[in-house]
Structures are given as C-alpha cells and as structure tokens.
Design a protein that fits this description.
The protein is of the alpha/beta class and 766 residues long. The chain folds into 2 domains: 356 residues, 3-Layer(aba) Sandwich (Rossmann fold), CATH 3.40.50.2000; 268 residues, Rossmann fold (3-Layer(aba) Sandwich), CATH 3.40.50.2000. Helix 8 crosses helix 11, helix 18 crosses helix 29 and helix 25 packs across helix 26. The longest helix has 28 residues. The structure holds pyridoxal-5'-phosphate (PLP). Pyridoxal-5'-phosphate (PLP) binds next to helix 4, helix 21 and helix 22.
C-alpha cells in the first residue's frame, strides 16, 4: 500500500525486475499484521487509509500484540490453532518511540484528602510503562502521513535485583515482569476464566489510559488550552471495548489537571464520540463492579459518580419510574455496563448501516434514543478501494482507468462512468478475460495446496468470514448437500458447474463453529471424491482466512455469500469488497446488503429470506418450532437426517450437536426457516449465470455502483458531521449514502473547527 499511495509501485517493480526480483514475490513474504481478528479491525485499517487519503489529520491507537489472533491450520478436517508470531522477523514499518512512553497504573488503594478542596491519592499501585510504536499511514499521492500508534506494555521499575540473597525479590520481579508483558501478549485472551477477564479489562484500560495521556501531552506541546479540548481534538471510540475512555479522561482532567467535575464532564462529552458495531449481546460488555474496584479503584469511583449523576437526571425526567432508571443505569446489579457508559459519555452515537442504526434507535437502545434524540446518527461503513480494488485487482483497475479516466482512485464515484459500458460486448469481454485470469490463478493455488482441481469456467461461489452461527455457513453447506442429493438421484441432471469456496476462523472456545468447519471439510471430501458428480460440484475449505487470502478470492469470485440472519450483521464489509471486484451477492436483507441493493438495483443482486423486523418479531415471540419445517420440507428432512445417519465419515454421533442445535435448541439463527427461500435464490443465481451477457452486465454494474462504499465517503461523513473537522481540500462529490447528510453539505451549514486531531481508539486494529 505504501508503494501505491506514494505513486511509485511501477517504478519499484521495474527496478526490482532489473535486479531479477519479482515485486509480487517480495510482497508475499510480508506477514499480515496480527492486530485484528475480523471485520472490525480490518475496518479500522481501511479508515486510517481513507483518512490519510482525504488529508484528514486522523490517527489510530491500538495495542501492539506480541501474538495476533491464531493462525489456523486444518488437520484431518479440524481447525488447529497455531500462535500467530507475526513479529518474529520484525515489522519494518514501526518506529519505537521510548521518549513518548507514559505510565499506566493498576490496582492499589485510593484515599481522599481535603486540602482546601477534595483530592484523591492513589497508592500501592502496579506501575506499567506504555511504550508507543508508530506505524505511518501515507495518504494517496498527497503530503499527509498519519500514525497508527500501537502501545506495548513494558515493566517499569527495575529496583529489584536478582541475587542469591534476595531470592524473594527476584521472584517478585519475575512475576511483575510476566504480569506486565501479558497485557500486550495476545489479542482477545480467552475470557472464560477470571484471569482471562482480568487481562481483557487490563488491556482496555491500558489502551485508553496511554492513548488519552498522549493526546493531552500533544495538546500541551502545541500550547493549546485544555479548556478548549473539544475544539482541538475529537476522540472516537471504535466499538464498545474502549468505553473506559470516558472515566479515564475525567480522571486525567480532574486529578491531574485540576478541573472541577462539571467542566471536565462538558469537555469529555464534547470530545468523545462512539460507534456501535454490533447488537450481539455478547459484544455489549459488562464488568463485575468488584473487579473494577480491585483493578481500577479510581475509575470505579468515577464511574459511580457518573452513574449517580446520570440516574439523578433520569429521575428528574422520569420521576418514580424505577424500572426505566434501572434499565438505563451505567452501573446496576453489581455490573458496569460499558455500552451505557459509552453512550452517556459521548456527544454522538452512530450505527454502521441504516438498518442497524434504526434497530439501535427503535429497539436495542430505544430508551437512550428517547432521552438523547440528537445523539444518534448513522454512518454506513465503507472500505478502502485503493487496497481492495486498485491493489488487489490491478488489471481491473487498468480497465477502469482506460474507460472512465485515471481520477477514479481519488474520486471513487467516477466508477459510475462504467454504467454506459455495462452492456457493451467489447467491454464485457475485457472484463471476462480479467475474471478468468484470476479464477485460473486461484484454481492453480487450490490445486497446489489441496490437490482439488477446479474448472475456471465453473461458477465460483465464496463464503469467507468468521465462522459463526449468525453468518450461517451451515445454510450454505445444507444447500450444497441438497444439490449433491439431487445429482446422486439423477446423475444426468443439468446444473451449471459450481465451485463452493469457504474460509474463516472459529473462535477457539466456540465448539459448534469448530464442528461446522469439520462438517464442511468432511462434506467436501465426500463430494470431491465422488465420480458420479465429476466436475459439476466442488467444495473447498481454504485454511487460515486473512486479508492476503481474501485478496486472491475477491477478483476470482462470481457469487458472494452474504447470508446472515437478518438484523444480526450490523453492516458487513466483505460485501463491499466483493462488489468492487464485480461479484454478485446472494444475500439477506440485512446491514449493508440493503444499501448495496438500493445502489446497484434489484436486478444486480439476489436477495431472499426473512426481513430484520420479521426476525426480531419472531425472537420477541420466543422463536418458532423447527420441527414444523423439518416435517413439511422433505429437502430439509433429508439433509438433517444425513447429519446423524453416518452419511459422512466420522460416525452417526459426530455431527449430532449440529442436528440438536437446529431441532432441539430452537434453530436460533433461523437456518431452516430461511432454507426454502435460499434454495430458490440459488436457482435464480443459476438462471442468471446461464445468460453470460446478462451476468457480465451485472458484474459491471456492481463495480460501477461500488464507489459509494468507499471508506473515503464514510470518513468524510464522520469528519464533517461528528468531528466537525475542516478538510484541507474542498468537499468533493461523495455520492453520499445518506440523503440528509448530502443536503446538509450542500449548504455547508456545519460549524467548522480549526486544527483538529481525530483519534480512534480500538482494542483491535488490523
Ligand atoms: C473484510 C474482512 C472481514 C469482514 O468480512 P464480513 O464478510 O463483513 O464478515 C473479515 N476478515 C477479513 C480478513 C476481512 O478482510
């Protein structure tokens, strides 16, 4: 990306070529930074790229994990987890800045002193040094270089010496060193044990405390008054993990800078804004208050105070309505509710797709929306087209530049200029040749890695993302089984040859997701080795899904599976990366899919299934009876019976937990409920695929409309609407996804701030 953004990729490639070195081979040696585990971390990286491209002074803060999310191996069909030692050969793009290290304190006791005014003394704490490593983010052919600041935890005190006579001191030193280094040792430590949970809370505090201290130092260095904090800095908390930014900023302003509560609160709320990325209950974290008290005693006092003042405000508005006050409190039933803390302490709360924001406002956070109606807004996600189109698919980038001109990288809405060519056979043939090139390349890779031979002219259908119940990889697998059953019953059946590609990691403690991987690989084994099926059906599970693998799949994918249970996928970003490369989505009416459908038109996407409102209503009623579907639809019955009949190697009980999750535990993600609609949607895909010209027209239209899903558009919306940041360059046409936003821009009615720094904090960057 550095080479592309500096505009020197061709020059460097030519120079290396003269030396007999292939640039692509050099790129392949580089490891993906082990800083994220899925869409959220990747999105943050996209936004850093977009902010630099847009000349916005926006920096990121994260943790420099020694080990990233595990590397996945598939052995005998099972996922194995290998430590991701991404720093083993060094990371040449980081700069260690020991002179900017700050101290972060854990544990200890807090006592109050009244010395003219009330103050707090924090003693006997464990002191940890936070050392920053800065990774530059270079803007696309401009003069902007921003930083991703990654904090590393290092031991602070060195006064204990190891010697034979001071053995106990020595052991203490070792314990201390290990405890400190654990803080930034791994991404997402296992939180099923108390120790694991303590470690996660430590990570969250370490990130927010170090980042906020650095921001305040920066303001001091610039000689700016802290009293104007929110005029000079915007602090954005990316998802709920860094919600401790709220009490930590209060602590720094009150204890270390002498502000009174009211002024500190005004500055805090004025500076902080919050993005909610998911409504899955497990992501709306809560922490036991006693853990808070033990690990972060001063923060615990501040959170109590925030809660009391907030509850008082609620009481004034809703006198006597205890149920509502308890439901909205920041601290209740012995738990700190991090999402509530983030909402109360921010001036802006946004969702990441129109539907998701509506669900936040009307359902999940409706009490808060009623109380703070002006705080809620939407910012539909976007991804960097520089990486996921220009870098990933240089041949397509060249075809685009030759068709609409070279400015599309700076103005992604120029992609709309492809529309008049979408049905032009000459253009379509060029597009088809590029797609075939990438499909052949992928087929060669699959053959080398797995021995499975793929026909590049078959329909390539990919389903790549984290393995999770709501993402419904099993629905896809059940449809494949159904196709296989049809082919077995009638070997002469005329179906378009299909290749199904899966990829994704399952969380190490998520047993059903791991079993789903095993099931898909077992199914692949049966189908790929069945001579009666031949080339009509191939199934491959690609190991260790990451950005590098995704970059191979994007340009080679005909159909992309985006089939979550409606309402569960806040937005999704995989969908956007795929349409940029001309894939056609088969998807549910959820998150970003809806906005993609509105952009590309219903003729250029295939949608199916229950709507979010239907799903949410069904959940409110306590679900449905999956046996009704099982008994009524013989296709469903056959496939489910095969799960427990020994149809797959491994014995009849191997996959019983999957069978049980559908029939005995209520099919929570509504796979059986949506199955018939999904099979019909797959038939519609096949019907369209058989008309080659129509298909290529769909590819072209998806690419043409993808400019709207560039992170550049999203970030201009954040910058102007939430951070009130004045861009150096005039606002461009952003084909805004949000009509209200577009209108507010045309009048330029937003107050603009002077020099401003936007800071994102997040537990996991990729
Ligand atoms: C984009 C991306 C994701 C998110 O994909 P979804 O389909 O939105 O879940 C996950 N992992 C990687 C490596 C990505 O690049």
């Amino acid at each position: 990306m550095y080479l592309i953004n500096l505009g020197i990729r061709d020059t460097v490639a030519a120079a290396l070529f003269d030396l007999g070195v292939d640039l692509g081979a050099v790129e392949d040696v580089e490891e993906d930074p082990g800083l994220g585990n899925g869409g959220l971390g990747r999105l943050a990286a996209c936004y850093l790229d977009s902010m630099a491209a847009e000349n916005l002074p926006g920096h990121g803060c994260g943790l420099r994990y020694r080990y990233g999310f595990f590397e996945q191996g598939i052995v005998d069909g099972r996922q194995i987890e290998v430590p991701d030692d991404w720093l083993k050969t060094g990371f040449i793009y980081e700069f260690r800045r020991p002179e900017e290290a700050v101290e972060v304190r854990f544990g200890g006791t807090v006592t109050t002193e009244i010395n003219g005014k009330l103050s707090y003394r924090h003693e006997n704490y464990e002191s940890v040094l936070a050392v920053p490593y800065d990774v530059p983010f270079v803007g696309y052919r401009n003069d902007t270089v921003n930083a991703l600041r990654l904090w590393s935890a290092e031991p602070h005190r060195t006064e204990f010496v190891c010697s034979a006579t001071r053995r106990n001191d020595c052991l203490k030193t070792i314990d201390y060193k290990n405890a400190v280094e654990a803080i930034t040792s791994i991404l997402y430590p296992d939180d099923s044990t108390r120790d694991g949970r303590v470690l996660r809370l430590k990570q969250q505090y370490f990130l927010t405390s170090a980042s906020l201290q650095a921001i305040l130092h920066d303001i001091d260095r610039r000689g700016l008054p802290l009293a104007g904090l929110s005029d000079h800095v915007a602090i954005h908390i990316n998802d709920t993990h860094p919600a401790l930014a709220v009490p930590e900023l209060m602590r720094l302003l009150i204890d270390e800078r002498g502000f009174g509560w009211d002024e500190a609160w005004q500055l805090t709320v004025g500076a902080i804004s919050y993005t909610n990325h998911t409504i899955l209950p497990e992501a709306l974290e809560t922490w036991p208050a006693d853990l808070f008290q033990e690990l972060l005693p001063r923060i615990h006092i501040i959170v109590n105070e925030i809660n009391e003042r907030f509850c008082r405000e609620l009481w004034q508005r809703y006198p006597g309505d205890w149920d509502r006050i308890r439901a909205m409190a920041v601290l209740a039933d012995g738990a700190v509710r991090m999402a509530h803390l983030a909402i109360v302490g921010s001036h802006s709360v946004n969702g990441v797709a129109q539907l998701h924001t509506r669900i936040l406002k009307e359902r999940v956070m409706s009490d808060f929306h009623r109380f703070y109606p002006d705080r809620f807004n939407n910012k539909t996600n976007g991804v960097t087209h520089r990486r996921f189109l220009a870098k990933t698919n240089p041949q397509l980038a060249e075809l685009i530049a030759g068709t609409v001109g070279p400015d599309w990288i700076t103005f992604p809405c120029d992609l709309l200029g492809l529309l008049p060519h979408a049905d032009d056979p000459a253009f379509q043939d060029k597009l088809a040749a590029i797609r075939r090139h990438h499909k052949s390349k992928l087929a060669a890779l699959v053959r080398d890695n797995t021995g499975v031979r793929l026909d590049p002219d078959a329909l390539f259908d990919t389903h790549v993302k984290r393995i999770h119940g709501y993402k419904r990889q099993l629905m896809n697998a059940f449809h494949i089984m159904h196709l296989y059953n049809r082919l077995k019953a009638d070997p002469g059946l005329d179906i378009a040859p299909r290749v199904f590609l899966f990829g994704g990691k399952a969380a190490p403690a998520y047993q059903l997701a791991k079993l789903a991987i095993k099931f898909i690989t077992a199914l692949a084994g049966v189908i790929n080795n069945d001579k009666t099926v031949g080339d009509k059906l191939k199934v491959v599970f690609l190991e260790n899904y990451n950005v590098s693998l995704l970059e191979l799949l994007l340009p080679a994918t005909d159909v992309n599976e985006q089939i979550p249970t409606a309402s569960r996928e806040a937005c999704g970003t995989g969908n956007m990366k795929f349409i940029m490369n001309g894939s056609v989505i088969i998807g549910t009416l959820d998150g970003g899919n809806i906005e993609i459908m509105n952009a590309v038109g219903e003729d250029n996407i295939v949608t199916f299934g229950l709507t979010a409102d239907e799903v949410l209503t069904l959940y409110e009623r306590g679900g449905y009876n999956p046996w009704d579907v099982y008994n009524a639809d013989p296709r469903v019955k056959t496939v489910l019976d095969q799960l427990v009949s020994g149809f797959l190697p491994g014995g009849p009980d191997e996959y019983r937990p999957i069978f049980d999750s559908f029939l005995h535990h209520g099919d929570h993600f509504l796979v059986l409920k949506d199955f018939a609609a999904y099979v019909d949607a797959q038939k519609e895909i096949e019907r369209r695929w058989r008309d080659r010209r129509r298909w290529l027209g769909m590819c072209a239209r998806n690419i043409a409309h993808s400019g709207k899903f560039s992170g550049d558009r999203t970030f201009t919306e954040y910058a102007l609407d939430i951070w009130r940041l004045r861009p150096d360059t005039p606002v461009r046409c952003y084909c805004s996804a949000d009509e209200d936003f577009a209108r507010s821009q045309s009048g330029c009615i937003l107050p603009r701030r002077p020099a401003l720094q936007a800071t994102l904090t997040n537990a996991a960057y990729n």
